[in-house]
Design goal:
By secondary structure, the chain is of the alpha+beta class. The protein contains six helices and 15 strands.
Length: 315
């Protein structure tokens, strides 16, 4: 569905160029094929049993050289100007740091807030600084016609200005590992007032959510879930028993797990202390069967207590 929506200023420009090139290509296909068919029938052997040598036509040769050259230069010009447009963001664009890692996206805003989904204000430009924490990823928003590589050790930039409220898919276009197909997120475009209420609110401010047709910025059902979304916990861990990049939080307290510490494995019944240690220092004890790719998110003592208390209720 993303290809059927023009949800940003860049999408309209990209579609205009694409449709112009497509129309030109269809015209040339019909013209060339029609000429070939005409020549096959008009100069068939029954009408011209003796072949006739044609020395050439200077005017015709000039036309079929100059016209295609002019067409290709026009295509190059509009393609290049659109490329420049997508690389040069407005001065007032909000800069958001985008990090791709196996297998999720994270977004950091100028005020330090971090989320697993990208939140944007309607009609306000947003510049993206895209990087990778591990392997090559492809950051792609189909509804915005926006695609840029996320490379380890290199910063790439692009920008967009949303023109429609809604929630739009973010995908990874590079096969980056076993859970590449699950490396999905969303761009949530809300009214500017809703975005400001969340952005300038305290760390417990509810994340903005879009509700058709134009209502937004309502609190989600549980404030701890909102915190876990903000800290990217739910990008890798489920609360309903589903297996994702990391083990599910459901039934975690007391569950038998095989942990590995410095290469030494042991079976344990997970207790509260191990839950806390797993959140604060995830690389100290690795759960067998899951990748060692969990980032460390800064938590205040109160936030840690709230998250641990919530996980303990998930039976």
């Amino acid at each position: 569905m993303g290809w059927m929506i023009q949800a940003s200023t860049g999408a309209h420009r990209a579609d205009t160029i694409f449709l112009a090139v497509l129309a030109l290509s269809v015209f040339m296909l019909i013209a060339i094929t029609g000429t070939m068919v005409f020549f096959v029938f008009h100069y068939r052997k029954s009408r011209h049993p003796q072949a006739e040598q044609i020395e050439g036509n200077t005017l015709l040769e000039v036309v079929w050289t100059v016209v295609p050259l002019a067409v290709f230069l026009a295509i190059f010009y509009y393609g290049w100007t659109n490329f420049e447009y997508m690389r040069n963001s407005p001065r007032d664009a909000m800069v958001v740091k985008v990090t791709g890692r196996q297998w999720n996206w994270s977004f950091e805003y100028p005020n330090g807030k971090r989320t697993g989904m990208l939140y944007a204000a309607l009609g306000r430009p947003m510049k993206l600084e895209v990087r990778s924490a591990d392997v090559v990823h492809g950051f792609f928003i189909p509804a915005f016609r926006l695609k840029i590589d996320a490379l380890p050790g290199k910063l790439n930039t692009t920008w967009f200005e949303p023109t429609q409220l809604g929630s739009y898919d973010i995908e990874c276009t590079v096969i980056c590992g076993v859970d590449h197909s699950a490396m999905l997120s969303k761009v949530v475009v809300v009214p500017e007032e809703a975005f400001k209420a969340w952005y300038f609110g305290d760390e417990n401010a509810p994340v903005p959510v879009w509700t058709a047709p134009v209502k937004a910025a309502v609190a989600i059902e549980n404030p701890v879930l909102a915190l876990m979304k903000q800290k990217n916990c739910l990008e890798c861990h489920s609360v309903d028993g589903r297996t994702m990049v990391g083990p599910t939080f459901k039934g975690l307290l007391g569950r038998q797990e095989e942990l590995s510490t410095e290469g030494v494995s042991r079976a344990v019944a997970v207790d509260e202390a191990q839950i806390r240690r797993g959140i604060q220092d995830p690389m100290s004890e690795l759960v067998r069967g899951f990748p060692a790719s969990m980032p460390t998110e800064p938590l205040s003592p109160r936030e840690l207590d709230d998250i641990v208390a919530y996980i303990k209720t998930l039976r």
